[in-house]
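Long-time lurker, first post. I've been practising inverse folding by hand and with some scripts of my own, and I keep getting stuck on stretches where the structure tokens seem ambiguous. Below is the full token string for one chain I'm working on. Before anyone asks, I'm not after the true native sequence, just a reasonable design that respects the backbone. If someone could post their per-position residues I'd love to compare against what I wrote down in my notebook.
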């Protein structure tokens, strides 16, 4: 999927990116310390607490900016993981200690977590929210 992540700095950057992404999306991480592993993309639901949704990791290569979601993680060619937010027709880098720069996302690996309902059974949903 993303290849082997062995560099401690890269893993730390991945963890930071996931934390920023989840916080911005309102997703509650079960494990907010640095025990998040690089296997998060294979086992995303082991790391996110949500009564209503399960998540799937969607990874794609950007062909044009118009296909980018409002918030996403980008893996650049130097294996840095950065979180960006769309602001009208521009993008803002939300990652820590990263200065804002003009950035082309074309050809870059984009990572998002897509929610899917755990159930569509109305009785189960009602019992969870009452």
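-- Answer (accepted) --
I ran through it position by position. Result:
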């Amino acid at each position: 999927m993303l290849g082997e992540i062995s560099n401690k700095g890269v893993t730390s950057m991945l963890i930071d990116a996931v934390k920023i992404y989840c916080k911005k999306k309102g997703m509650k991480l079960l494990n907010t310390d640095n025990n998040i592993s690089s296997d998060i993309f294979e086992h995303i639901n082991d790391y996110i607490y949500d009564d209503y949704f399960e998540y799937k990791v969607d990874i794609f290569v950007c062909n044009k900016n118009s296909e980018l979601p409002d918030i996403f993680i980008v893996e650049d060619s130097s294996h840095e993981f950065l979180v960006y937010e769309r602001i009208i027709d521009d993008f803002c880098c939300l990652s820590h200690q990263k200065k804002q720069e003009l950035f082309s996302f074309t050809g870059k690996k984009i990572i998002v977590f897509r929610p899917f309902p755990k159930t569509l059974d109305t009785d189960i949903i009602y019992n969870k929210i009452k």
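A couple of notes from the structure itself: Residues 8-129 form one domain. The chain has one domain: 8-129. Happy to go over any region you disagree with.
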